[in-house]
Amino acid sequence: MPKxxxxxxxxxxxEVREATLDTTAALVAEHGLRSVTMSQIATETGIGRATLYKxxxxxxxxxxxxxxxxxxxxxxxxxxxxxxxGDASERLEVVLETYAFMNHEHHGSELAAALHRGExxxxxxxxxxxxxxxxxxxxxxxxxxRDDVAPAELASYCINALAAASNLPSKAAVRRLVAxxxxxxxxxx
Length: 189
Description:
- By secondary structure, the protein is mainly α.
- The chain has two domains: about 10-55, Arc Repressor Mutant, subunit A (Orthogonal Bundle); about 60-185, Tetracycline Repressor, domain 2 (Orthogonal Bundle), CATH 1.10.357.
- It has helices at about 10-30, 40-45, 50-55, 60-85, 90-105, 110-115, 120-140, 150-160, 170-185.
C-alpha cells in the first residue's frame, strides 16, 4: 500500500486522486472493466471506502477522470513533439505520426472502447482538431500545404484517417498511412 500523505492537504488530495486513478487502471487491466469495485479500489489504493467516495461517486467516474488525464497527457505529448520539429510541414508530420502511434498502441481494449463515448472525448477531439488546423493553416501560408480545402475539413480528414492506425498490423503500416495522409495534404500545382 502506498503512503498517501504529503506536506499539505492540497498535495495529499492530489496524491490520493492520482493513486486512485492509477490503481483503478491497473485493476481494470488485470480483472476487466466490469469486475472492479469501489471496495477493491479503496483497498488497493490504501484508503477507506468513505474517503474514496469523497473523491469519486463510482467506478465510472474514476475511469472518466483517468481517461481525461490520459487525453491531457496525449495532447501535451503532441504539443511537445510539435515544438521540437522544424518547419510547418515537419511539425504536422511529427504530430500526425505521433497521434497515429497513439491510436495504434491503444487499440482494441475494452477500457478504450468504453471510455471513448464520453463528453470529455468530444472536447478532446475538438481541441485536437483545432491543434491540427493551426498546423494546416501555417503550412498553407508557407506554400507547402493545400489551401483549396477548409482547414477544419482537412483536420477532420486527418483525424478520421488516423483512426485506421488502431487496426494496422505494424509500425511500418502506421508510417505508410501517415505518408498517404500527408500526400493528400500537399499543395496541388
